[in-house]
Design brief:
The complex is a heterodimer of chains A (336) and B (288).
Chain A (H helix, E strand, L loop, with lengths): L1 E6 L3 H18 L1 H4 L2 H26 L8 H16 L5 H23 L4 H21 L9 E2 L2 H7 L3 H28 L1 H11 L1 H6 L4 H27 L1 E2 L1 H4 L2 H15 L5 H17 L4 H17 L3 H10 L9 E6 L1
Helix pairs in contact in A: 3-8, 3-11, 3-13, 3-14, 4-5, 4-6, 4-11, 5-11, 8-9, 8-11, 13-14, 13-15, 13-16, 14-16
Chain B lengths: L1 H31 L6 H19 L3 H22 L10 H22 L15 E4 L2 E4 H23 L1 H11 L1 H6 L4 H26 L7 H15 L4 H21 L4 H15 L11
Antiparallel strand pairs in B: 1-2
Helix pairs in contact in B: 1-5, 1-8, 1-9, 1-10, 2-3, 2-4, 2-8, 2-9, 3-8, 5-6, 6-8, 9-10, 9-11, 10-11
Classes of the chains: A mainly alpha (336), B mainly alpha (288).
């Protein structure tokens, strides 16, 4: 006799979790085995990975295709500077505070730009980011258009030695990436995540089942904005210098992130991870070519979007029925 | 007092340029529901094509339009049939991301070809010529730009409602599948619509290049101005787009009058106010 059972975890997902746990331990020890430049590069990779996971949650699951996430990256960066310089807060407290402020700010922002649909929503988010950029460029206490540096006292409050600061900033980036991935994963497995997945598949059917679409999207937008601001704070804690053009750069904080998600596989949790690795692989090998490298990146994203809209991970999943983060349910016939 | 009147009048004239940015955007959205993120970069491409034409042929920028307009129209047709038609469908993600990728490619290609140095199209004495009207000094160039914007929009209106091509545009816009059943090749009609939109973009690019200096990075900002004009005026209403451009222009010149740093910000704020008060724009199309 055989009875059908419903499972989420598979052998592949269990193996992946074990490997991921080991990888996290190895990565956490990186300050003892990696060089200074490598440590910095890995920190950057983790921050981009976080941004990609967040954008993927918004665009891939909630259907909120934003090209204006630089608004919150820059806001988080500037709040780190403002809260430490004028508020006298410890940088880590300031970064968490910037997340709270970004969440509060994102509600009125959403109330405005949610009036725009689809592609117009995308450009609306960009306008918002421009408003943020131009506003911060007017604040002369933060250096106006030319920007400002984090005072030495604030930097020293993180850790006394330079290597200590570098290790701390690396661990913060690693911690942020792990937190973001875990939160997105747990969210998607929860009841609300199920609602979100239903919206992704069909808005009409989802609303027929009693899901409040507007509210679900708002929740995603607010949470994403808060986390994006925190990541922004960490980015500029690494850079130690901020200016409106760097903080609100559409290329750095949105274009690259979109390419990462599209190439890796939008609407999957594995996609942004694969995409980040591919992006940095391309960047480290082609960076010397400058503009050519960016053109290649844009072309790769276009080709992926047209020929394999589910990205690299979508191809792998369709071919091998693999899922490293167990999100979907599977029915199996168990042999007695 | 006269200074404020002057700011408003200059703003209205500036609005003509923004309406030119917006007209192509509005046209392709109307025909195929495509929002082209690369629109601003295509405006800048047109400005650079204008620059190359004036330098190589030694002609006036306005004469260069005779080369740039057909060139941009050709680029538009090929782009639409070769790339953008494949992205159209119920899902909004492919057109958005493909045109976003296109924007990055164009920007960097222009950077590679023309460097990051600001360029300008030199139109000779017309740039500084002005008319004196009731104590106001009106530049001939802004007046000409505004007149061109009105002419372009009237022309588009005429094409849409009085020609066979316009009938095809309206047919595919209403229902692509039925238009196809009636014997229209929608891929070709979309190609023609993009060709027309980029011919208008050619005018916008050359007028931009004559008015101010430009470099490869400013496309995104021009897209945003055009987009704001479309939304302020109301989707689907091409005369509304002109009004939207004028409102945006006036908001900017008044903002600049108060503090030079506020020019662009004031335009964005005007846009957000309209979005808050009248989310469908000031002059939305009346559904018949």
């Amino acid at each position: 006799m055989s009875a059908p059972v419903v499972t989420r975890a598979t052998r592949a997902s269990r193996v992946a979790m074990v490997i991921a746990a080991l990888a996290v331990i190895v990565l956490a020890l990186a300050p003892w085995w990696a060089g200074r430049a490598d440590l910095r590069l890995m920190g950057e990779i983790f921050l981009y990975l976080s941004l990609a996971c967040l954008w993927n949650l918004m665009a891939g699951y909630a259907g909120l295709v934003s090209v204006g996430q630089q608004a919150f990256v820059g806001f988080g960066g500037y709040m780190l500077f403002a809260l430490t310089i004028f508020g006298g807060l410890h940088p880590i407290v300031a970064i968490l505070g910037s997340g709270v402020l970004a969440a509060m700010l994102s509600v009125p922002v959403a109330a405005l730009i949610f009036r725009l649909k689809g592609a117009y929503f995308a450009i609306g988010t960009w306008v918002m980011a421009e408003v943020f950029r131009l506003t911060f460029a007017q604040v002369s206490a933060l250096g106006g258009g030319s920007g400002t540096s984090l005072p030495v006292g604030v930097v020293k409050s993180l850790a006394a030695s330079r290597s200590g600061r570098e290790a701390l900033s690396y661990w913060l980036a690693l911690g942020a990436a792990i937190t973001v991935i875990t939160c997105v994963y747990l969210f998607l497995r929860s009841r609300r995540g199920l609602a979100l997945t239903a919206i992704r598949d069909s808005e009409v059917a989802a609303s027929g089942l009693g899901i409040d679409i507007w509210r679900t999207k708002l929740e995603v937008y607010v949470v994403t904005s808060a986390f994006t601001a925190i990541i922004g704070g960490l980015i500029f804690l690494q850079k130690l210098r901020i200016s409106p053009d760097a903080a609100f750069s559409v290329n750095d904080w949105t274009a690259f992130v979109i390419f990462i998600v599209v190439i890796g596989g939008i609407g999957t949790l594995e996609g942004p991870i694969i995409g980040t690795l591919v992006f940095f692989l391309l960047r480290e090998t082609l960076a010397d070519f400058g503009t050519i490298y960016l053109m290649v990146l844009g072309a790769v994203a276009i080709v992926v979007m047209l020929k394999a809209p589910k990205g690299i991970w979508g191809l792998v999943r369709d071919r091998y029925d693999l899922e490293l983060f167990p999100l979907s349910y599977r029915v199996r016939i168990k042999e007695d | 007092m006269i200074e404020w009147v002057n700011a408003v009048v200059q703003g209205i004239l500036l609005g003509g340029l923004y309406a030119l940015f917006a007209a192509g955007l509005s046209l392709i959205f109307g025909v195929m529901r495509l929002v082209n993120i690369a629109h601003g970069d295509l405006i800048i491409l047109a400005a650079y094509l204008g620059l190359s034409t004036t330098v190589m042929l030694g002609v006036h920028p306005f004469a260069a339009l005779l080369v740039v307009m057909p060139a941009m129209a050709g680029i538009g047709y090929v782009l639409q049939r070769g790339l953008l038609n494949q992205t159209l469908g119920p899902d909004i993600l492919p057109p958005l991301l493909v045109t976003f990728g296109l924007s990055v490619i164009l920007q960097n290609a222009l950077l590679e070809g023309y460097t990051a140095d600001p360029q300008k199209l030199s139109a000779g004495s017309i740039e500084t010529a002005s008319l004196s009207v009731g104590g106001l000094s009106l530049g001939v160039l802004p007046l000409l730009t505004f007149g061109l914007a009105v002419a372009v929009i009237a022309g588009l209106q005429w094409i849409f409602y009085a020609t066979a091509l316009g009938r095809q545009f309206r047919a595919v816009s209403d229902n692509q599948d039925i238009a196809q059943l009636m014997g229209l090749n929608k891929a070709h009609v979309f190609g023609l619509a993009m060709a027309l939109a980029l011919a208008v973009t050619a005018i916008a690019g050359v007028m931009l290049g004559v008015r101010t200096s430009f470099d490869p990075s400013i496309g995104g900002g021009r897209l945003i101005f055009g987009f704001e004009a479309v939304i302020i005026g109301g989707l689907g209403n091409i005369w509304g787009t002109l009004a939207g451009g004028v409102i945006l222009g006036v908001a900017q010149t008044i903002g600049a009058k108060i503090d030079p740093g506020w020019q662009v910000l004031a335009g964005h704020v005007a846009f957000l106010v309209v979005l808050a008060v009248r989310p469908n724009g000031l002059f939305p199309r009346v559904e018949h």
